[in-house]
Amino acid sequence: MEVKLLDFTEFVDKRGHLLPLEANKNIPFKIKRLYFIYSTNKKMSRGFHAHKKLMQVAICITGYCTIVLDDGQVRKEIGLNSPKKGLLIDKMIWREMKDFSKNCVLMVIADDYYDESDYNRDYGNYLEMLKWLK
Q1: Three-state SS at 30
Q2: Using one digit for the tens of pLDDT, what is the confidence trace for 120-134?
Q3: Among candidates 47, 59, 62, which has minimal Cα distance to 123?
Q4: Which of 6, 28, 31, 49 is catalytic?
Q5: Could you give the strand order of the β-sheet that contains 119-120, starting from the edge strand earlier in sequence?
Q6: What is the largest CA-CA distance in the chain?
Q7: How far apart are CA 61 and CA 103, in angstroms?
Q8: How far apart (Å, rounded) are the C-alpha atoms in residues 21 and 8?
Q9: Which of the residues 44, 54, 66, 131 could staple to 99 if both were Cys, CB 3.0 to 4.6 A apart?
Q10: What span, in angstroms and rounded, lies between the C-alpha atoms of 126 and 123?
Q11: Could you give phi then psi for residue 17, rounded to 5 degrees?
Q12: Cα 67 from Cα 100, distance rounded (Å)
């Protein structure tokens, strides 16, 4: 499994920092949804699902967290702690989010609207689906 971290260019001057995110430029798809995860209990994990079609980019706006990615063969943990880095999460990749700092704000950008039927929330079922796709 290839992990792809996107580097975002920021513009800095005496007024502060500006970091633009643009669909089909530094975000590699058309943006249809954006949401934030925050005020999360450090001892709690989230996610535990894969999307059949949805692609996402996760960006830790402030604080830090760990994203676990699993393609059914390889499991990798990626730490996010900067708004200048975005983690591209492709379709059919199992994801878990954990180790949230107290001030963590995780922004997730998606290429489609929320659709419950796109979720696979059962890891065993996810592994079976992968077998059928190969």
Answers
A1: coil
A2: 999 999 999 998 876
A3: 47
A4: 49
A5: 75-80, 65-70, 94-98, 46-51, 119-120
A6: 55
A7: 10
A8: 8
A9: 66
A10: 5
A11: -115, 140
A12: 10
